[in-house]
Amino acid sequence: MTDSNRRKEIATGLFIFLILFGGFGFGEFSLRLINYFRFGAARAGAAMVDDPAGPLVVDPATQIMRPRPGFSGGNIQINELGFRSPPLEQPKPESRIRLAFVGASTTYDFYANSNETTWPHLTWRFIQDAVPGCHFDYANAGIWGLGLRQYGTAIDRYIAPITPDVIVIFGPGIGGEAARVAREKGRPSDRSSRLARISFLWQTIEANARTISRQRAALRPEGKITIDPTEFARGFEDGLEGAVRRAQSIASVVVLVGQRGHLRRHQSPQEQIAAAASQIDDLPYLTVGAMLDLREAIDAATARVAVRTGALLVPLAIPGDDIYWADSVHFREPASRLLAELLEQRLLGAEQFRTMLRQRGCDCGGFRQSLR
Fold first, then answer.
1. 158 CB-contact burial (10 Å; exposed 0-12 / middle 13-18 / buried 19+)
2. In this structure, are residues 109 and 144 in contact, taking their beta carbons and an 8 Å threshold?
3. HSE-up (13 A, CA, CB side) for residue 231
């Protein structure tokens, strides 16, 4: 082999290496940039909590991982109290009517492009536009991964001190409780590789490979666990009622949002797998049918809690079309807007809310149509 040919081989090898390395680096950079604008952090997984300047912090008093007070990054702004909403005047002025929104990542509104496009913000804006004679403010107290068993603690520690007049509670869905039941049945949690814990690109590659495998098995019962929907809903119902009772000890009006997701019974098997994709990855030990059974059971449980407690119920009447859903449980902006409209209509039509407004000196003779 001549020296010229040898140099060409070395140059070709270096070129291929640079192309592969450069492609990996570009993919990593792109995913980190997307994550920064969406979630306010350019780091993967648990590193967002470990980072002292990151978007999340663990409250030592409750061990709840919540938004870091005062954080600002990407499309995320967190106020000084740890809420994804504007600063609140404390103590609350007597003339102020305060709305508080309690829930997990769907309440935080993961995929909203800004604080101003989250459904809690839009609900506040629509109501303020409809009742211009009153001064409203709000707190979006959505917390990533908040479990139903933590709702009461979150209400006591984070919501009670801001003395809201209205508390909207959106339950956490089936994920956390189903995972707990699965652990009790001996199903271990997934563990990502070390590389996936530091690299967004490798994390995405691993997740996609895992999801493809799990989607193939999602409609089959082999290797799955059985969770009784009635028993599951009973535990959910007890926990949700406890949260509502705590909220009612604080606020004049409590609202419950119903439970529906992207996955629907009328969809074809292929559509169901696509709609349930993120939950198939999170809950691989459940069939798609079991996911539907559990979701419908907790939706019915939410309605029963509303009847028993006198809380206002807002069914989650959002279609299952892709335009409304970013994944199995999180909204796109049309869904956030639609839920805000449903909440506005329910509150403005409720005598509980009107009575509270009259007691606060608001003119309820006729509500102005919100500007959309």
1. buried
2. no
3. 5
User: CA 327, CA 330: separation in Å to the nearest integer?
Assistant: 6
Pseudo-torsion of CA 227, 317, 248, 68, nearest 10°? 80
Please state the pTM of the whole predicted model: 0.84
Pair 127, 134: CB distance under 8 Å: no
Give the three-state DSSP class for 58.
strand
Distance CA 263, CA 174 (A): 13
- Which amino acid belongs to residue 336? S
Question: pLDDT (tens digit, 9 = 90+) per residue, 119-140?
Answer: 999 999 999 999 999 999 999 9
Neighbouring C-beta atoms of residue 222, cutoff 10 Å? 6
Q: What's the angle, vertex CA 250, arms to CA 247 and CA 252, rounded to 5?
A: 90
Crossing angle between the packed helical segments 200-217 and 3-39, to the nearest 10 degrees: 80
Distance of alpha carbon 332 from alpha carbon 158, whole angstroms: 27
CA–CA gap between residue 142 and residue 196 (Å, rounded): 27
The DSSP bridge pattern shows strands 253-257 and 166-170 to be parallel
